[in-house]
């Protein structure tokens, strides 16, 4: 009995010793874990607060690995398991979703206002807490069936919100005989004009995409180079159209009107970049200026259309310059034109300059008409830009240079002048909308689908005479 008791005591002492060893090891592990957590957290904070921009190739793996380490050692870690950090983890997904649109709004509207940047952080955290405490806690308690139904409802609702304008347009056009690009019918009213003008404005960029064109670079759509498909084999000519966004703006119209004459249509469109002078507003336009000539030289089209809204072409001539022979802007235009013509078999059509538009006034056309505002007042309002006098002088200079260019082309250049399509001789003003208020232009200063239809007969005549 004594021996048994002695053995039991020895075993008990061994167990106690082992427990003390295990606790010591656990304490050491927790201590080491704390050191690692402190180090990882400090490293992440250091990277976040680093005063200089670090390469993404360095930051992303460091942050990912650091965060992973913190997650692995967070269990029973005194620092990482405290209530404050745990709660931050709880609201983190809501914060991730919410902070970006708020930050983007600050970036686009108040970039540089640092105290407002701090307010975006505070606002994002407050909204994340609100969403977590109300919506997240609620749906986490739902059954799988209820969650699936909620997801389906939110998904359908999102699609409706995103596609609301397309859905509205389909409903409006249901049962109507519509074959034009603008979907305008004779029975529409000024209220329909308000709705259509709004749709054309918000879909301005989308309407620049030519469905018939196969783009060389998908990322650049609707800009870049593309070639129109599904042309008839019986077409006679190779056609090229080049310019800034106005080329994309005209793409579907040219394809519809000239397509039957063509066996190939090459399209090159780059925002702001004019063909006959490297637009100074954008540095990349100098490379495009060279690219236009190189592609035409490679393509060797029968006809070319230069469709560009003017910018640098309307720049004022240097002081004491009174002739085009001494005008450096015109000389560049002439040199580029002659280079292009050397690669064009027949003729080059050039879109003439059109007055600058008060883009902020486009959305006011139909409401002003509905309120009884005189049309001439609206005409003048739409051309009253911020720098009206400067814009008017630039417009006149561009037209003079284009006119001289045609004289120096030896009959191979033809101007496409929209002024006569929009100028109202009776009132002496440019009329940028029809009698019911449907606008011919968008707030992006492109032709609206209604404007495209307004100039369609110009292109019908051009294409028939090729």
UniProtKB/TrEMBL annotation:
Signal peptide range: none
Pfam families in the cross-refs: Acyl_transf_3, SGNH
Coiled coil: none
Entry keywords, A to Z: Membrane, Transmembrane, Transmembrane helix
Transmembrane segments: 35-54, 115-132, 139-162
Membrane recorded as keyword: yes
GO molecular function: acyltransferase activity, transferring groups other than amino-acyl groups
UniProt KW Transmembrane helix keyword: yes
InterPro entries in alphabetical order: Acyl_transf_3_dom (IPR002656), Acyltransferase_3 (IPR050879), SGNH (IPR043968)
All copies of domain SGNH, residue ranges: 213-459
Acyltransferase domain segment(s): 25-129
Protein name as catalogued: SGNH domain-containing protein
Organism of derivation: Caenorhabditis elegans
